[in-house]
Design a protein that fits this description.
heterodimer; A: about 300 residues; alpha/beta; 8-stranded parallel β-barrel; B: Rossmann fold; 2 domains; 4-stranded parallel β-sheet; elongated
Chain lengths: ~300, ~210
């Protein structure tokens, strides 16, 4: 049996689409479940963020189980910020036992950027070590060198920032993640397709699938803010101008149009293996982005 | 090498001194004098502030090196005033608090928080360069410690939060891995950065850490 539906999609040669769901802060799952219902059949996999930006929320694994229950294909985001190696391994066992087959391995944002600023950041492992841990557990061992009674099997991925400055340290880390066992990469948001093409010329040399990160721009202000404040995100001025020129109340529609246009271009020119759409708080418009992309 | 300290808020000091009407104040002539947290000037300033609260200061002294064994001698010299005190207010680092507690049976209350052990890169600029982790990686990181200099203590390269050579938690701080990258590159040893570093041993020296030299 195949490892996962996502892995099958990645290996099929089709243009793969993944998106993400943000769990709630609290036990009211209504909105998250609505987003799952809305998107699950339109994509090849649905990430669930893991206390994104170090903000405490309903857990990623809880969201993944909900996706599973609704017939979707979950991608469990796991950061190393909040759990030591015992807890990470235990969660991998739980995830596998409940049918979750895709893991996105992340180091995690710093505690200081979140809403529990006095918490202890764990970082017992890092993203590369977590990838290696998955491959080790697949071989029947844990990090303590002990045998597992029943092993795991996952399609494991990681992230890369094609616009990082300086770029080479990120690329070295990318290669370490590939060697550690990453099968797919979801990139940080990309907007400059010429730059991304250069990155892909390089990344194509490795036996991994690359899904370009598409972050929905909801206004010129948000685009400007991201360029100025989010590491590794650069929105070209012409896109900011395009958003600014949108009629009053029409910026979001323009953002959807831009995202759709980018996805269509990436697909038409076979620039990468697919896209990962992050609507950040506006998950309900993911179907509109797909429609704008002609998908 | 200096022990870096920061004075606690006066409110906290006030709370900790509640019920102690006759403190004896001890500063240190070494680190806390350099960092201006527990030298003569700060001790006298504290004395005035506490007197303003109605405390009777039984005495004060600045011990040359509060963390070494001469502290015992200093304390003996001030024997009578210390006997008359209800507590000691220590304007030393925690090493001094520990040392004093060996010789004094009065409660020792720290007026400072001990932050880290630093080297002075240039006058007045103190930087933590070693976390004393018990598993030195400097040979592979061009002499820059990622455990100390990287906010997350990462050993396999930069996280995604690095931005133009700076750290995601503070734009004023350099990204440790940008520095390591530049220096390794300059040394023609970039292949070291490509090497996978396994999970670290956080029990290299299990706490409490101690050693007995034969």
């Amino acid at each position: 049996m195949a490892v996962s539906r996502l892995k099958d999609a990645l290996n099929s040669g089709k243009f793969v689409v993944t998106s993400e769901i943000a769990p709630p802060k609290g036990t009211n799952l209504e909105k998250m479940l609505h987003h799952i219902e809305l998107i699950k059949d339109r994509v090849d996999g649905l990430n669930v963020t893991d206390h994104q930006s170090s903000v405490m929320r309903f857990p990623s694994i809880g969201g993944c189980l909900a996706i599973k229950e609704h017939g979707g294909e979950p991608i469990l985001q796991m950061t190393c910020r909040d759990r030591n190696r015992l807890a990470l391994q235990a969660e991998l066992l739980l995830a596998f036992s409940r049918g979750i087959r895709n893991i996105l391995c992340l180091t995690g944002d710093a505690v200081l950027v979140g809403d529990h600023k006095e918490a202890k950041g764990v970082f017992d492992l890092d993203s590369t070590q977590l990838l290696k841990t998955i491959r080790l557990m697949e071989s029947g061992k844990d990090l303590g060198g002990n045998s597992l009674d029943g092993v795991v099997q996952f399609c494991a991925g990681a992230i890369v920032t094609p616009e990082a400055r300086p770029l080479e340290p990120q690329l070295i880390k990318f290669e370490k993640k590939v060697e550690a066992g990453a099968e797919f990469f979801q990139t940080q948001a990309i907007y400059d397709l010429d730059n991304f093409r250069k990155f892909m010329d390089y990344a194509r040399k490795f036996p991994v699938k690359i899904l370009a990160g598409i972050v929905l721009l909801s206004s010129a202000k948000m685009a400007k803010y991201m360029t100025e404040n989010v590491p590794g995100i650069f929105v070209p001025q012409n896109l900011i101008d395009e958003l600014a020129a949108a009629p009053k109340g029409g910026a979001l529609a323009k953002g959807i149009e831009i995202a759709g246009r980018m996805i269509a271009t990436l697909k038409k020119n076979s620039l990468c293996d697919g896209v990962h759409i992050m609507a950040i708080g506006k998950e309900e418009v993911v179907p509109d982005i797909l429609a704008a992309a002609g998908l | 090498m200096k022990s870096i300290t920061r004075q606690k808020s006066f409110d906290e000091i006030k709370t900790q001194l509640a019920g102690f009407d006759r403190p004896f104040i001890i500063g240190c002539g070494t680190c806390t004098t350099v960092t201006k947290t527990g030298g003569v000037d700060q001790v006298l300033e504290m004395k005035e502030k506490l007197q303003g609260l109605g405390k009777r200061i039984s005495g004060w002294t600045v011990i040359p090196i509060a963390c070494d064994e001469m502290t015992g001698v200093s304390i003996k010299e001030n024997g009578r005033a210390i006997q008359n005190a209800s507590c000691i207010l220590a304007m030393t680092c925690a090493l001094g608090v520990h040392r004093m507690s060996l010789y004094i049976d009065r409660p020792v209350i720290p007026a400072l928080d001990t932050l880290f052990i630093a080297v002075e890169d240039s006058p007045g600029y103190f930087r933590e360069v070693c976390a004393q982790c018990g598993q030195c990686v400097l040979g592979e990181t061009a002499g820059i410690c990622p455990i100390t200099a990287c906010h997350k203590g990462l050993v396999n390269g930069p996280c995604g939060g690095t931005n133009s050579g700076k750290c995601e938690v503070d734009k004023e701080k350099d990204c440790a891995w940008a520095l390591i990258y530049e220096r390794l590159k300059g040394q023609g040893r970039l292949e070291l950065m490509r090497k996978y570093q396994p999970p670290r041993n956080y029990q290299a020296v299990p706490r409490p850490r101690m050693v007995k030299i034969q």
